[in-house]
Design brief:
With 280 residues, this protein is of the alpha/beta class. It contains 12 helices and 14 strands. The strands form 5 sheets. The protein has a 5-stranded mixed β-sheet, covered by helices on one side. Strands 4-1-5 form a 3-stranded parallel β-sheet. Helix 7 links the parallel strand 9 and strand 10. The chain is globular. The chain starts with 7 loop residues before the first helix and ends with a helix.
């Protein structure tokens, strides 16, 4: 059998194709989204951070910030991928989307899996209970001491906060989203649910007279959450470009106007960097 030979012209075409493939492979996420003008964000339904409205619009503090930031980078189209909270980081790393825009807290553990932009807000937690707060719960420690049951969204930092305060796993009801937290308290399958103060207030507003957010909540100051956009570990150039935009935009009238509809104001402006929060 005679060997197959490639003609000079065919060889040149093959080499060009290989070179094009190499260039495509070397293209970073930042380069791709600027070339195409499109970026995909991953989010989980949690008001006011990121959620879907009844008409199908994806909005919230984090998606709206993402839209403004990416527009400043020349990226006009923002597609959104709804994902359960616990699947956000795996979905990002698997390439289902380019950025997590869900108000995700920066923690040392997560910093080992993704790279975060600098925080865009800071916020504390609280509880929702049935009206009257019959077990008088005003802290994670109260839940532990009174052997109360606590609904928590799986994969959130609140699970760790509760454990650190002595809440046993047997006291926790782990659920996929905040709606399930609300229903657990309303149906009295849990004595309370925990989450960010803005989220819990929003849940209580959905069912006045059936659940209430606790205005008095005592917590470790170190549990203050700092939310940020998150990227794949190799996308440091994208992270750096986003940080450059955020540095000149956070705290401006346009930024505050963007986040005001979701309950954020100057008091939520962050006072720490991601390097500090990651332990770097």
């Amino acid at each position: 059998m005679k060997p197959i030979r490639v003609s000079g012209a065919a060889s040149a075409l093959l080499m060009a194709a290989c070179a094009a493939t190499t260039v495509a492979q070397a293209e970073t996420t930042l380069q791709r989204i600027q070339r195409t003008g499109e970026v995909r964000i991953g989010y989980a339904n949690e008001k006011p951070f990121a959620y879907t409205t009844p008409d199908g619009t994806v909005t919230g503090e984090s998606p709206e910030i993402a839209r403004k930031v990416f527009a400043k980078l020349g990226v006009k189209k923002v597609d959104a991928v709804l994902t359960e909270w616990g699947s956000l980081i795996p979905g990002l790393r698997a390439g289902r989307f380019d950025v997590i825009a869900a108000g995700m807290y920066v923690t040392p553990e997560r910093c080992k899996q993704v790279v975060f932009a600098n925080p865009q807000y800071q916020i504390k937690d609280t509880l929702i209970t049935v009206p009257g707060n019959p077990k008088d719960l005003h802290s994670y420690g109260d839940v532990a001491k009174k052997d109360a049951s606590l609904a928590l969204m799986a994969g959130t930092v609140e699970v760790g906060y509760a454990r650190a305060s002595g809440v046993k796993d047997s006291q926790m009801l782990l659920v996929p989203d905040t709606t399930a937290e609300l229903q657990a308290v309303r149906a009295r399958r849990a004595d309370a649910a925990a989450g960010t103060a803005l989220t819990m207030k929003d849940l209580a507003a959905k069912m006045p007279g059936q659940v209430e957010a606790q205005a008095k909540f005592i917590d470790d100051p170190s549990h203050t959450g700092y939310g940020a956009l998150a990227f794949r570990p190799e996308d440091t150039d994208l992270r750096d470009a986003v940080n450059k935009v955020l540095k000149g935009w956070l705290g401006t009238p346009d930024h505050l106007k963007t986040v005001a509809p979701f309950g954020f104001d100057k008091s939520n402006l962050p006072d720490k960097t991601t390097a500090q929060l990651c332990g770097g």
